UniProtKB/TrEMBL annotation:
UniProt similarity note: Belongs to the mandelate racemase/muconate lactonizing enzyme family. GaD subfamily.
EC number: 4.2.1.39
PANTHER family, per the entry: D-GALACTONATE DEHYDRATASE, D-GALACTONATE DEHYDRATASE-RELATED
Chain segments annotated as transmembrane: none
Superkingdom: Archaea
GO MF term list: gluconate dehydratase activity; metal ion binding
Name of this protein: gluconate dehydratase
Segments forming domain Mandelate racemase/muconate lactonizing enzyme C-terminal: 140-245
Key words of the record: Lyase, Magnesium, Metal-binding
């Protein structure tokens, strides 16, 4: 029986090269098995780096010495012991890292890419959309100029948050400014490009409807997290009043949450983040739940390279896959060079096809990028693309 022997947690970053404020550090898990194989996982950070890192130490108490093939049993074993915390984002994020690293070991043990163990390549091409590209963009011209440079590199879909510093409420001027940005993006880039509107869950319901209705005529592919996440009971009204598909899911933590949102008519496109919602197998199960309701999947992917590789392995296998988020174009070099094994070219994402996740680590960079703790908060919330939370 092959077991999990060594567990190492790396908090990585670079004081010189900041990444997106919410992921200027990443948490990488390295599992070494009794048969000498190495598997990598990743947990997200945002405002929770240290709690997630501590939760990984808690989860290690369950996974240490276990058979890494026993994905279902090991996660259930944690759940049965955790009692109070099994649905905290810190715990599900920590569990995700161990689950992803276990799959990396499984694929390497069997000599197979993970996607071939989950149903194979239903999708040959994975269309990516760019996020993170619009730092310091305030005017419509700013957004268009940066987007055009990515169009020239093959991207045909762009996610962006055009709402500046509006929060809870939005002013008439704020709606007008957002409308001008989206209108200019549409008129300059044409109908062949998909526009994905990010709200970051910033609005109260009525203001979300006001903002959403102002953007209908530009036919966005979807509008993401229009309403504060705790006010999800108003999403059916938003969907009835605004003729733009609603996307959400990065903050949902398990298949039960997604089943509830879908069956209660709250969402049109789901966006699970498999480093928040317990990893690869849960992501596949969530995708199947959505498929049974005719709902598409566009996995959230905003942190690091192990997350991208794990997500791509699931993307390949989903009949109801829609489009894949990528921040790679805006990553600093330390994050870009940490692993090799997948590509993001001309707006299309692809894995190497090597066993496991399909990626290889740069050991030297792994050792040399160790940091401790997030940088202090700035003048903007850490969840925005830098330089955009402006009136
Ligand atoms: O990528 C997205 O959809 C985001 O909303 C990015 C968020 O700012 C990030 O995930 C916060 O942790
Ligand atoms: Mg989002």
């Amino acid at each position: 029986m092959e077991t999990i022997k060594n567990i190492e947690i790396y908090e990585l970053g670079s004081p010189e090269e900041k990444s997106s404020p919410w992921s200027s550090t990443i948490l990488i898990l390295k599992l070494t098995s009794s048969d000498g194989r190495v598997g990598f996982g990743e947990a997200p950070t945002t405002m929770m780096t240290l709690p997630v890192k501590e939760s990984m130490n808690e989860v290690a108490r369950v996974f240490q010495g276990k058979n890494y093939f026993d994905i279902e049993k090991n996660l259930r074993d944690y759940y049965r012991n955790a009692f109070y915390v099994a649905k905290s984002v810190e715990e599900t994020a920590a569990l995700s890292a161990f689950e992803i690293a276990s799959w990396d070991l499984i694929g390497k043990n069997l000599g197979s890419p993970i996607y071939n163990l989950l149903g194979g390549r239903f999708n040959e091409k994975i269309r990516g959309y760019a996020n993170g590209w619009y730092s310091d963009c305030v005017s419509p011209e700013d957004f268009v100029s940066k987007a055009k440079s990515l169009v020239s590199r093959g991207y045909s879909a762009f996610k962006f948050d055009p709402f500046g510093s509006n929060y809870d409420k939005i002013t008439v001027d704020g709606v007008k400014k957002a409308q001008e940005i989206v209108a200019q993006m549409r008129s300059s880039l044409g109908e062949g490009v998909d526009l994905l509107i990010e709200c970051h869950g910033r609005f109260s319901p009525k203001y979300a409807i006001m903002a959403g209705k102002a953007l209908e005529e530009y036919n966005p592919l979807f509008i993401e997290e229009p309403i504060h996440p705790e006010l999800e009971r108003f999403l059916p009204e938003f969907r009835a009043r605004v003729d733009i598909p609603v996307a959400l899911g990065e903050r949902l933590l398990n298949k039960e949450d997604f089943a509830r949102y879908i069956s209660d008519g709250m969402v049109d496109v789901i966006q699970p983040d498999l480093t928040n919602s317990k990893g690869i197998l849960e992501a596949k199960k969530i995708g199947a739940i959505a498929e049974s309701f005719g709902i598409s999947v566009a996995y959230h992917n905003a942190f690091g390279p192990v997350q991208t590789a794990a997500t791509l392995n699931v993307d390949y296998t989903l009949p109801n896959f829609l489009i894949q988020e990528s921040f790679e174009e805006s990553w600093p070099s330390w994050k870009k060079n940490l692993f090799t094994g997948y590509s993001v070219e001309n707006g299309t994402m692809a894995l190497s096809g090597k066993p496991g996740l399909g990626i290889e680590v740069n050991e030297k960079l792994l050792e040399n990028s160790k940091v401790s703790g997030m940088e202090p908060l700035g003048t903007e919330p850490p969840w925005v693309v830098s330089g955009t939370f402006k009136p």
